[in-house]
Inverse folding.
């Protein structure tokens, strides 16, 4: 899609600027990942119509807009309302175009924006969070954002911010977690229990952002343990049980990732996960079925009790039916292995008991 390049002359805070160097592109693919900065999600101090009336058709060219906006973020000099307007403008300028994000970071915006995230004014905090998120969409900015101390303020906003601030904090932490060395730091900052809570109590967008962030963070064993201990299996099971939630796949991937944690298997069972997983094998999409099979296989591998439970739930017929489809490779092997386990739980129990008695 061709980008639109508009030269617009306008007045901001009684100063005139030309933004011919600032390109807007609403089709930015970066937001297809987080989908976190949407038009109209803010209630600006002045309406969009009023802002448009401020635009002028004659003014001299100037590239001073971004540095000027950054200067207005100084809390020791300017009022909260001025900071809000400046942060909102930075958020809009950084919304779509990587070049803008780089220029804003170069102008020194990151540290003052992070300071806004710690503001007691929730609206100002929200503007700061979203601007930092937008800047984090540019890979060149992520290290600077992290080294400037963004993680703890983002976790604070995740805990006590507005719904939008919480969602955008989750997405900003997701962006930072793409730096491998930051995964543990983010986990130790207290983010994971808050992300689990957002997964359980947030709206659809919040659940999606939280699940994606948790999936990224839980590539670390330490964070996997934190997630399980934070009660993640309950919302995961609930979301997987709700085929209308559009969260079955995402939740399944997160649950499958956590199966390497010893206590995860018993927790899934305790939260009523077995009938949910069996139902997915029966009526889910092909991908959902394969995820469910992978989880069930890991639950059943070391427990005859769980094998019996899964078999009694009626898992074998849909597994056999699944095997009749055009499955190949590792997915087919997992189905065959799970069927084998479920068909012979008693024989395997006897074998295990015999091995145990011989070792005594």
């Amino acid at each position: 899609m061709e980008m639109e390049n508009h030269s617009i002359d306008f007045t901001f805070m009684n100063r005139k600027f030309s933004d011919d160097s600032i390109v807007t592109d609403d089709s930015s693919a970066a937001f297809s990942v987080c989908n976190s900065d949407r038009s109209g999600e803010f209630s600006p101090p002045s309406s969009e119509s009023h802002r448009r009336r401020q635009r002028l058709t004659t003014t001299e060219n100037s590239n001073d807009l971004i540095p000027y906006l950054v200067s207005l973020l100084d809390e020791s000099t300017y009022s909260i309302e001025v900071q809000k307007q400046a942060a909102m403008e930075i958020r809009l300028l950084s919304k779509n175009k990587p070049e803008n994000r780089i220029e804003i970071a170069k102008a020194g915006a990151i540290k003052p924006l992070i300071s806004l995230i710690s503001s007691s004014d929730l609206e100002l905090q929200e503007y700061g969070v979203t601007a930092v998120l937008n800047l984090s969409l540019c890979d060149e900015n992520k290290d600077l954002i992290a080294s400037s101390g963004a993680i703890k303020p983002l976790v604070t906003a995740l805990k006590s911010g507005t719904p939008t601030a919480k969602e955008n904090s989750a997405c900003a932490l997701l962006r930072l977690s793409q730096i491998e060395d930051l995964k543990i730091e983010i986990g130790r900052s207290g983010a994971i229990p808050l992300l689990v809570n957002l997964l359980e109590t947030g709206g659809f967008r919040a659940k999606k952002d939280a699940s994606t962030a948790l999936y990224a963070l839980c590539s670390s064993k330490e964070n996997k343990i934190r997630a399980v201990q934070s009660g993640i299996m309950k919302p995961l099971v609930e979301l997987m049980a709700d085929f209308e939630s559009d969260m079955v796949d995402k939740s399944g991937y997160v649950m499958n990732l956590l199966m390497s944690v010893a206590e995860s298997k018993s927790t899934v069972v305790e939260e009523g996960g077995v009938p949910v997983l069996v139902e997915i094998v029966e009526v889910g999409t092909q991908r959902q079925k394969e995820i469910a099979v992978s989880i069930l296989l890991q639950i059943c591998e070391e427990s005859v009790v769980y094998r019996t439970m899964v078999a009694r739930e009626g898992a074998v017929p849909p597994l056999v039916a699944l095997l009749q489809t055009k499955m190949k490779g590792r997915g087919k092997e997992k189905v065959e292995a799970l069927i084998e386990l479920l068909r012979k739980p008693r024989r395997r129990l006897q074998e295990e008991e015999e091995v145990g008695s011989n070792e005594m």
